[in-house]
């Protein structure tokens, strides 16, 4: 839920660390969420996919080429799809050197390890199921893994977890399995279509360029599956003035590569 604002003014949008804090540390790594925690960022966003042997891991692209040294390590295995590598192979990759030598040896996190670290840091998680069409059955697997890690107990599921996706069908599957998990649809449906999303989504999370004050009012006018008004978390905004403008449009959250600086800009406004 959004942080309460100062008395007499609308609540400030929550600043959510997109892939951790990629302006300071390699995206979607434990180093990135640790740095975000040091900078005071409570909510972090990540991306979850599945390895060839069925392990859930945290990585954004559907190939490993951009954010690891896989091309050097496995030159014959282009295009280096996440789904074509085992967990053991992926865990040997360097997910930090491409960003900065200071992060050499950083690994692609398992979801289980990532969840432990988010808990350790007392952070909250906006977990994106990335490209679920590539990973049939990932929704059931995800709920089992969240459950095993203690993330479906009362406190976590009520206050510390939202699962989001661009794929409405995947969110509906997840909703049928675990209606208690809050869900976010990534996109900006037209006002007339919003009601159908409110059946399974608690948030509608649009590209920030699509947001208008009227659209935010239309979203807020609907109640989600948990009986509360739908929320809006817009992405991806790194400029303080843009964040302030979005706050004035009424959004509840802003997903940012520099969430700590956005939070400052919002607080100063
Ligand atoms: O959280 C919203 C945003 O992460 C969606 O886009 O490509 O960064 O996963 P992408
Ligand atoms: Ca994402």
Blueprint of the fold:
Layout: E1 14-17, H1 30-38, E2 43-50, E3 56-58, H2 70-73, H3 87-91, H4 111-120, E4 124-129, H5 138-148, H6 154-160, E5 161-165, H7 168-177, E6 182-186, H8 194-197, E7 203-205, H9 213-220, E8 231-235, H10 240-249, E9 253-256, H11 259-268
Parallel strand pairs: 1-2, 1-9, 2-4, 4-5, 5-6, 6-7, 7-8, 8-9
Antiparallel strand pairs: 2-3
Helix pairs in contact: 10-11
Quick take:
With 269 residues, this protein is of the alpha/beta class. It has eleven helices and nine strands. An eight-stranded parallel β-barrel has the order 1-2-4-5-6-7-8-9, surrounded by six helices.
Measured between the Cα atoms of the first and last residue, the distance is 21 Å
Largest sheet: 8 strands, parallel, barrel
Estimated structural class: alpha/beta
CATH superfamily: Phosphatidylinositol (PI) phosphodiesterase
What is the succession of H and E elements?
EHEEHHHEHHEHEHEHEHEH
CATH architecture classification name: Alpha-Beta Barrel
> Care to count the β-strands?
9
Mean pLDDT: 96
Number of helices: 11
| CATH fold call | TIM Barrel
The helix content, as a percent range, equals: 25-40%
Strand content: 15-25%
- The assembly state of the depicted protein chains is single chain
Overall number of domains: 1
* Top CATH class: Alpha Beta
């Amino acid at each position: 839920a959004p942080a309460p604002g100062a008395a007499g003014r609308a609540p400030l949008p929550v600043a959510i660390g997109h892939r951790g804090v990629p302006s300071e540390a390699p995206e979607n790594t434990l180093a990135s969420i640790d740095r975000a925690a040091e900078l005071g960022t409570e909510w972090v966003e990540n991306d979850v996919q599945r390895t060839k042997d069925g392990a859930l891991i945290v990585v954004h692209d559907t190939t490993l080429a951009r954010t690891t040294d896989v091309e050097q390590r496995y030159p014959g295995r282009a295009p280096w799809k996440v789904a074509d590598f085992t967990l053991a192979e992926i865990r040997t990759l360097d997910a930090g050197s491409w960003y900065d030598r200071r992060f050499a040896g950083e690994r692609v996190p398992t979801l289980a390890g990532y969840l432990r670290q988010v808990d350790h840091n007392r952070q909250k998680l906006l977990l994106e199921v990335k490209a679920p069409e590539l990973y049939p059955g990932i929704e059931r697997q995800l709920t089992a893994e969240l459950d095993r890690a203690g993330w479906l107990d009362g406190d976590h599921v009520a206050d510390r977890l939202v699962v989001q996706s661009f794929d409405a069908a995947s969110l509906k599957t997840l909703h049928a399995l675990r209606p208690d998990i809050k869900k976010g649809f990534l996109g900006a449906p037209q006002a007339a279509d919003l009601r159908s999303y409110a059946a399974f989504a608690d948030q509608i999370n649009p590209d920030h360029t699509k947001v208008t004050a009227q659209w935010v009012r239309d979203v807020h006018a609907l109640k989600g599956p948990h009986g509360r008004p739908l929320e809006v978390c817009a992405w991806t905004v790194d400029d303080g003035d843009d964040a302030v403008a979005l706050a004035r449009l009424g959004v509840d959250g802003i997903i940012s590569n520099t969430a700590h600086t956005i939070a400052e800009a919002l607080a100063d406004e």
